[in-house]
């Protein structure tokens, strides 16, 4: 892949316009409610050559049903099975959600899937055991997996788990330092929240941190379109 690719988390403009501006996107719909395979195949077919899709894994894997994001599910979960979802529990329901995520990754020819954790996922012995059970049992094909822990996860534990389970440590570079991975996967959420707009100096600092290492740099803030475009222009000056 190109050493550094810049894009947005989701499509802030119409897809045909986005394809003209960028060569990378992180698909968000797959987190809330996976679209039909026919839909994502059409995205792949209409994207230009060399365009890269990454995607967020379905929330049924990572987030418990108490998360407000579950409101966007089309079909409510069976009440008797609510304790089977989220937090990487090694249950048939969670593995089925991974199978669906993997099907979409294949249809998009995606090289990488992001597994973003809720802040409620703490580094307890149970959660660490669930992580190990999940990542050692799932099929991966040739996918890279990027894990974005949030909350009070000790860097040493993150590094240990990423090395052991062959994971890329996904971070916001203004909040955490990546602990492991052959590439960088940066998700910029806004230094003070979603309404944040990055300065050129901050964008230059991100690119300086990347250096010559392969990287995906993705913006997930209100000004993502403008910030990503400016970052891409700054990147061009370094080539």
Structure description:
With 239 residues, the protein is α/β, with parallel strands linked by helices. It has one domain (4-238): TIM Barrel, CATH 3.20.20. Helices cover 38% and strands 15% of the residues. It has an eight-stranded parallel sheet with strand order 6-5-4-3-2-1-8-7. Strand 4 (112-116), helix 6 (125-137) and strand 5 form a beta-alpha-beta unit. Helix 3 (37-46) runs parallel beside helix 5 (92-108). It is globular. It starts with a strand and ends with a helix.
So how many helices? 9
Radius of gyration over C-alpha positions, nearest whole angstrom: 17 Å
Query: From the 3D coordinates, which CATH architecture would you assign?
Result: Alpha-Beta Barrel
Helix content: 25-40%
DSSP, total strands: 8
Tell me the CATH topology. TIM Barrel
- What structural class should be given to the helix and strand makeup? alpha/beta
The average pLDDT score comes to 95
**What is the CA–CA distance across the termini?**
15 Å
Main sheet overview: 8 strands, parallel
Total count of domains: 1
CATH superfamily: Protein of unknown function UPF0759
Oligomerization status of the protein chains = single chain
Strand residue percentage: 15-25%
Order of helices and strands: EHEHHEHHEHEHEEHEH
> If strands are numbered along the chain, what order do they take across the biggest sheet?
6-5-4-3-2-1-8-7
Quickly name the level 1 CATH class: Alpha Beta
